[in-house]
Write a structure and sequence with these properties.
Layout: H1 3-113, H2 117-137, E1 140-142, E2 155-161, E3 172-177, E4 180-182, E5 185-188, E6 190-195
Helix pairs in contact: 1-2
Length: 196
């Protein structure tokens, strides 16, 4: 081969190398641009995610505040309803006792006008029975005590009295003040004397 041809071949090789170098640089630049684009896309994705998280947090906060307000309104409403129920329950009892009060007024009036003690006594007994029936209708019961073992859930011992009979020891032998239950709740403990 001639010297000229070899020179041309070397020149061709150099030009091919140069072209490859330029192509590699172009590819590198494109890679850097795409990396930059990817980074900017990732940043925008992160911004969108953080914006979504902020929106979601704001939404949850709003839901929480609404729930707290609803619960507060519910609590106030139920408290008001409970107070109304207590007031109307007391009103119902008072209305039923007013009829007995009227009977007592008539009995007092009859005592001033009549000398028949037996008729007045029977009238008082009837009023007493009417009061007991009214209380039973409202769920009030007398606590039975005499002859029973002392039960501190129902009775309050105010005195102890010595007894000769063995079976009366530790049992209620007298009631100083009657006790009452409203359904299963003790309203007033029975004050009792216990045998010892």
């Amino acid at each position: 081969m001639t010297h000229t041809k070899m020179k041309e071949k070397n020149t061709d090789k150099e030009s091919v190398k140069e072209e490859q170098k330029i192509q590699n640089e172009n590819i590198e630049e494109q890679g850097n641009e795409s990396t930059a684009d990817n980074m900017s896309e990732e940043n925008s994705d992160e911004d969108a995610k953080s914006s979504d998280m902020t929106d979601e947090a704001s939404e949850w906060k709003d839901k929480y505040l609404r729930l707290v307000a609803e619960f507060d309104n519910y609590r106030k409403r139920t408290l008001r309803e409970k107070m109304d129920l207590i007031a109307s329950g007391g009103e119902d009892v008072i209305k039923s006792l007013l009829a007995i009060m009227d009977d007592i007024d008539r009995a007092l009036d009859a005592m001033t006008k009549s000398d028949d003690i037996e008729a007045i006594r029977q009238g008082i007994v009837l009023i007493h029975q009417k009061l007991i029936d009214t209380l039973h209708a409202k769920g009030v019961e007398e606590i039975s005590a005499i002859g029973q073992e002392l039960d501190t859930d129902l009775h309050e011992a105010v005195a102890k009295f010595p007894v000769a009979e063995e079976e009366k020891k530790g049992k209620v032998i007298d009631v100083v003040q009657k006790g009452y239950k409203l359904k299963d709740k003790v309203v007033r403990f029975a004050k009792v004397v216990v045998g010892e």
